[in-house]
Specification:
Order of helices and strands: EEEHEEHEHHHEHEHEEH
Number of helices: 8
Radius of gyration: 18 Å
Number of domains: 1
Number of strands: 10
Strand order of the largest sheet: 6-7-8-3-9-10
Largest sheet: 6 strands, mixed
Distance between the termini: 37 Å
CATH class: Alpha Beta
CATH architecture: 3-Layer(aba) Sandwich
Bound molecules: adenosine-5'-triphosphate, magnesium ion
CATH topology: Rossmann fold
Length: 244
């Protein structure tokens, strides 16, 4: 299909020390799709995301972005990171920089934008996540939910072709989760292509076009979000029953 953004092919990761975290998994993501990856702790979800944007190298298999293999030494890491955005559980903001600088820094250094151009774009994306009024704050003075919305804005500013979320709400106090999920839902509704690793099963059911259930390093079940209400495999049934 020509609207294919990402093709993960037979991906495996064995960590130094021998943990076989991902065992030959394959899936595709098409333009505008939101794909949720769910599964127990240790099933390999973060490992898959980290291999996709090359925070770590897969042991075997391929990551293909718009038809081009990116897990090769000659691939430009900066280019990959700006085409594949990532939002982490732990925000990863620079504590010594104001919100606006956290966003404009990458635009200036990776995208080569002029300061005022970068700042203009930073204000635009902050507006999108309702954080414009905190543009001059330092991350230390923001709530977890606000930090995560800044991290989302930072990823958006790079205009990625696909956005990866690794449990974006699991470090947040319960009352702060909703606003972050709303931002992500709005992006999905606007047609942003994304993969969301999440423990928020209800969110996955409501927002994802497709759900991938991982267990012990493999894709154990995959389908439309209806598989959450109607899982076919015993292991996914068992996994979901712990969420009731
Ligand atoms: N850097 C590492 N070195 C060695 N083993 C690792 C490393 N990172 C992860 N692992 C192991 O690989 C397996 C998969 O880990 P991964 O973090 O991908 O799981 P996960 O599905 O994201 O779990 P969680 O839901 O807890 O975040 C686990 O057994 C984990 O202990
Ligand atoms: Mg993880």
């Amino acid at each position: 299909m020509n609207d294919e953004i990402l093709n993960v092919k037979n991906l495996s990761k064995i960590y130094p020390g021998g943990v076989h975290a991902v065992k030959g998994i394959s899936f595709k993501v098409h333009k505008g799709e939101s794909v949720a990856i769910i599964g127990s702790s240790g099933s390999g979800k973060s490992t898959v995301l980290r291999c996709i944007n090359r925070l770590i190298e897969p042991t075997s298999g391929d990551v293909i972005l718009k038809g081009k293999k990116i897990n090769i030494p000659s691939a430009d890491i900066n280019e990959i990171r700006s085409r594949i955005g990532m939002v982490f559980q732990s925000f990863e903001l620079f504590a010594h920089l104001r919100v606006i600088q956290n966003i404009s820094l990458g635009l200036i250094h990776v995208r080569g934008m002029k300061n005022d151009e970068a700042e203009k774009l930073a204000l635009e994306v902050l507006q999108k996540v309702d954080m414009l009024d905190r543009k001059d704050a330092y991350p230390g003075n923001l709530s977890g939910g606000q930090k995560q919305r800044v991290a989302i804005a930072r990823a958006l500013a790079m205009k990625p072709e696909i956005l990866l979320f690794d449990e974006p709400t699991s470090a947040l106090d319960p009352e702060l989760i909703g606003s972050v999920l709303e931002n992500i839902r709005a992006l999905a509704d606007e047609g942003m292509t994304m993969i969301i690793v999440t423990h928020e099963i209800g969110f996955a059911r409501d927002v994802a076009d497709r759900v991938i259930y991982m267990d012990q390093g493999i894709v154990a079940e995959e389908g439309s979000s209806s598989i959450i209400d109607n899982p076919q495999t015993e292991r996914m049934q068992k996994f979901l029953s712990t969420w009731d």
